[in-house]
Amino acid sequence: MEEKANPEEEKNIRSLNFIEEIIEEDIRKGTNEGRVHTRFPPEPNGYLHIGHAKSICLNFGLAKKYNGKTNLRFDDTNPVKEDVEYVDSIMEDVKWLGFDWEDRLFFASDYFEELYAYAVILIRKGKAYVCDMTAEEISETRGTPTRPGKESPFRSRSVEENLDLFSRMRNSEFPDGTRVLRAKIDMGSPNMHMRDPVLYRILHAHHHRTGDQWCIYPMYDFAHGQSDSIERITHSICTLEFEVHRPLYEWFIREIGIYAPRQIEFARLNVTYTVMSKRKLLELVRDGNVTGWDDPRMPTICGLRRRGFTPESIRNFANTIGVAKRDNVIDVSLLEFCIREDLNKRANRIMAVLNPVKVILDNYPDDLVEEMESVNNPEDESKGKRKMPFSKTLFIERDDFMEDPPNKFFRLAPGREVRLKAAYIIRCESVVKDAETGEIEEIHCTYDPQTKSGMPESNRKVKGTLHWVSEKHAVKAEVRLYDRLFTNENPDDAEEGKTYKDYLNPDSLRIITAMVEPAVSLAAVLDKFQFERTGYFSVDKDSTPQHLVLNRVVPLRDSWSKGEKVK
RNA sequence: UGUCCGAUGGUGUAACUGGCAACACAAAUGAUUCUGGAUCAUUAGAGUCUAGGUUCGACCCCUAGUCGGACAACCA
Question: Which chain A residues 71-100 have CB under 7 A to strand B?
Answer without folding.
Answer: 75, 77-78, 81
